[in-house]
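tmp note - Putative glutamate--cysteine ligase 2
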Amino acid sequence: MRTVGVEEELLLVDPETGEPRALSAAVLARAALDEADGEVFEKELHTEMLEFATHPQSGMADLGAEIVRCRKEAARLAEGLGCTVAALATSPLPVQPSIGVGRRYQWMAEQYGITSRDLVLGCHVHVSVESDAEGVAVIDRIRPWLSVLSAISANSPFWQGGDTTYSSYRSRVWQRWPSAGPTEVFGSAECYHRRVADMVATGVLLDEAMVYFDARLSRRYPTVEIRVADVCLHASTAVLVATLARGLVETATREWRAGQEPLPHSVSLLRLAAWRAARSGLTEELLHPATMRRMPAEAVVRALLDHVGEALAETGDLDCAREACAELLRSGNGARVQRELMERTGSLREVVRECVRRTQA
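out:
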């Protein structure tokens, strides 16, 4: 069974005002005192962010338990420093983020200017693969389905104190980075690595780590890293995204071994699908990954479940995934929850406070 790991970026906020706090260095200093925490939590570009990475897990229940544990531990480390953590993909309240110290971050700030000052928080899913050849075959075949994961995870409707009208505004902001977004079909590991090397050779990117494809080969682990999701408000949604991601990787591998070619959608169409998912989330229509034509979001989510159904059934995850999707369509993703909280309370500060509670629930 393929293992799965999740990286989540959490927002550090004032527990009373809901405003972002640039305290990641202090939180990480506390984490470093504990040998286990020192390996789990990492710094990010902005000092208002705290990242953690789970261990690779085979069981989704174990993965969910670790996500919950890491979120609670992050809150414990932040407690006493005047902040707490919220699983929000953008700050609902206005923020002028601070760039972290270090040569790498300073180079990014100088090179990319205002783009480097956009505070956005994502969820990255790592799924194990046997080789680079298998990994690139997977990347080529999961491309059309990634927009559905973006819609499911959408959790960033507010930006600098206002409603953006998007469900995942984070994903739109993220597209400002020059190497971000969907990719064409590579066809082989050799072509993939040549493309990455050519991109780094331009000097626009500092190194290979700055190749921000929607799905890429991990530099550190034998995994495909899927990078389209917002950090999810509820841990259960993160588990669902990871479950579907593993199903996509396994299904793509079987297609590759059977000689089935990837769908030949252009990058232009994939960008439109990603935009539609960011705009609508699960509330309106999405582009069906096979046809690239509009369909109700519920029908597209059902198509994704059908696409990965055999793989999920073999890992024992199909029933849980179906139930989680049905509940999400009923109750809403993070974007819908945030808007409903805003409608009910009339206060973005209250939105953040409630999201802090849900993050650690």
